[in-house]
């Protein structure tokens, strides 16, 4: 049985005595590896190695830092199929979808290949007589990321390229459910020439998260995961004096107006609901059909959902894989059952799906629930499964009010052919990322990613310009070079010329 270890000081690290947990293939339900779980001592060893490495890395030239990122980018592209298969085997998503995840993550590396431009400072000449001011940004030191299972490569890639390119050393605590992608990326950094200790991986559960949040040698933490843990991480990290951004869960709503191209909207929303088995923070689990859009929209969904090919993620032709754990599968089935018992209409019902040859897999088929109401748990909670709930309302205003009543505010989309209503929606919806006829409006990496309300705790969004600000701090320098022959008199009053 393969044993997955930490990565500290530029190499795998395992003292052989640690607690372990099984890593499970979601398509079969069978164990594929065992994972070493860290503790506060491992975190401390990683931080010590990072502290030493960061002293030199933080002073390395921009040319040196960007050269590593250019090599990392090429290695990610060269190894994309190998990494995609690693992701698919532990997460369950299709290999094709995993390739897409790596490409989207690699966009952040593209962005930091131009970190020299993104970190250019500011300069003002002669702010007072003979006095100039300039501002520039410096790394924070040793920083950390704590990431979820659903994008084992992309979400860490939102963080570490920006943190490292701006001169920090980075400690990653990936999800314990699909840890191997992070080890693969650690080795790519080694091959790219990153000095030992600048990138570390410490595996674990709450004990390691708490050790990171409490460690005085870590200056900042970026977290992505569910809302209750995001709230906890932000509060504990801030109490320990750290800068924290904590991206939480979501329940993204798409509104379909009667003037939309209904077939187009249904196809886009179905892909947003069932892609990656609905296990995306920007998935579209809620569709709000306005007025006469509802019947034709649901008819299209019935056809589309029934046609999705479900199976193991590495089988050619499969469009949707299993859920991450048996517990997740059982929870999704329970939420669907509760909704149906309360009056929702199961237009397509994925409960009880069995994939031949994969009877132990965590499969749920695509499910469409019509006539869902706001009191149902399947609507109120983040289902995180291949379930699309359809709510029917009469007007645009009703739809907007429903979207804005959600405690989450990650993404939202409107499907319409009216520029006027689209513009109104964009301006009035309470969400951090909005799509117009685009179901999953994940920003490209030279913008920043982040939601509103309970989808993000903290001030900065991830990657792009806000990522650069998050992983650095600004210094403002006021300079004067007095003339030897014209001495400047010191005054007790503020200078005003
Ligand atoms: P999770 O919150 O269970 O785990 C996230 C990380 O926190 C993991 O590394 C895990 O080990 C750790 N963790 C779990 N429980 C903890 C606890 N009690 N105390 C301290 N640490 C703990 O999330 P998940 O199930 O891995 O991922 C799915 C969730 O992540 C969904 O809610 C999804 O919406 C969210 N997500 C959000 C975004 C976003 O950008 N907003 C992106 C991806 C995923």
Automatic annotation (TrEMBL):
A GO molecular function held by the record: methylmalonate-semialdehyde dehydrogenase (acylating, NAD) activity
Swiss-Prot/TrEMBL keywords: NAD, Oxidoreductase
Top-level taxonomic group: Bacteria
EC number: 1.2.1.27
Domain Aldehyde dehydrogenase: 17-477
GO biological process: L-valine catabolic process; thymine catabolic process
Keyword Oxidoreductase: yes
Entry-linked Pfam families: Aldedh
InterPro entries associated with the record: Ald_DH/histidinol_DH (IPR016161), Ald_DH_C (IPR016163), Ald_DH_N (IPR016162), Aldehyde_DH_dom (IPR015590), MeMal-semiAld_DH (IPR010061)
NCBIfam families associated with the record: MMSDH (TIGR01722)
PANTHER family linked: MALONATE-SEMIALDEHYDE DEHYDROGENASE
Protein name (record): methylmalonate-semialdehyde dehydrogenase (CoA acylating)
Organism from which the protein derives: Cellulomonas soli
Taxonomic path: Bacteria, Bacillati, Actinomycetota, Actinomycetes, Micrococcales
């Amino acid at each position: 049985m393969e044993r997955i270890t930490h990565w500290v000081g530029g190499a795998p690290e395992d003292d052989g005595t640690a607690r372990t947990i099984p890593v499970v293939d979601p398509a079969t339900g069978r164990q594929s590896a065992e994972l070493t779980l860290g503790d506060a001592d491992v975190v401390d060893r990683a931080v010590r190695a990072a502290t030493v490495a960061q002293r030199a890395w933080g002073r390395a030239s921009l040319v040196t830092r960007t050269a590593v990122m250019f090599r990392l980018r090429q290695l990610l592209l060269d190894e994309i199929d190998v990494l995609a298969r690693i992701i698919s085997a532990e997460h369950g998503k299709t290999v094709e979808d995993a390739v897409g995840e790596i490409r989207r993550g690699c966009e952040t590396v593209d962005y930091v290949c131009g970190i020299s431009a993104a970190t250019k400072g500011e300069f003002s000449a002669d702010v007072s007589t003979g006095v100039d001011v300039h501002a520039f940004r410096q790394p924070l030191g040793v920083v950390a990321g704590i990431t979820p299972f659903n994008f084992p490569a992309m979400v860490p890639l939102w963080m570490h390229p920006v943190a490292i390119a701006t001169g920090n050393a980075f400690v990653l605590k990936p999800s314990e459910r699909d840890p191997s992608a992070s080890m693969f990326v650690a080795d790519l950094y080694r091959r790219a020439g990153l000095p030992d200790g600048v990138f570390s991986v410490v595996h674990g559960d709450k004990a390691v998260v708490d050790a990171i949040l409490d460690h005085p040698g870590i200056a900042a933490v970026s977290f992505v995961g569910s809302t209750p843990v995001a709230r906890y991480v932000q509060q504990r990290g801030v109490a320990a004096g750290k800068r924290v951004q904590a991206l939480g869960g979501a329940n993204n709503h798409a509104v379909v107006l009667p003037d939309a191209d209904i077939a187009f909207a249904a196809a886009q929303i179905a892909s947003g609901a069932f892609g990656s088995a609905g296990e995306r923070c920007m998935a579209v689990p809620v569709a709000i059909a306005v007025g006469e859009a509802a019947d034709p929209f649901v008819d299209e969904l019935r056809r589309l959902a029934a046609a999705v090919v479900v199976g193991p993620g590495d089988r050619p032709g499969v469009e949707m894989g299993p859920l991450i754990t048996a517990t997740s599968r059982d929870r999704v089935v329970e939420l669907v059952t509760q909704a149906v018992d309360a009056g929702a209409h199961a237009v397509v019902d994925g409960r009880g799906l069995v994939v031949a040859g994969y009877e132990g897999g965590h499969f749920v088929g695509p499910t469409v629930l019509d006539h869902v109401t706001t009191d149902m748990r399947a609507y109120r909670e983040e289902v995180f499964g291949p379930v699309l709930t359809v709510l029917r309302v009469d007007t645009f205003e009703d739809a907007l009010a429903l979207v804005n009543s959600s405690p989450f505010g990650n993404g939202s989309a409107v499907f319409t052919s009216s520029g006027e209503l689209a513009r109104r929606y964009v301006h009035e919806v309470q969400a951090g990322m909005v799509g117009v006829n685009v179901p999953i409006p994940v920003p490209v990496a030279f913008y920043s990613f982040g939601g509103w309300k309970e989808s993000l705790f903290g001030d900065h969004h991830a990657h792009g310009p806000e990522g650069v600000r998050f992983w650095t701090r600004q210094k403002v320098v006021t300079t004067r070079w007095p003339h030897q022959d014209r001495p400047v008199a010191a005054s007790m009053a503020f200078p005003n010329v």
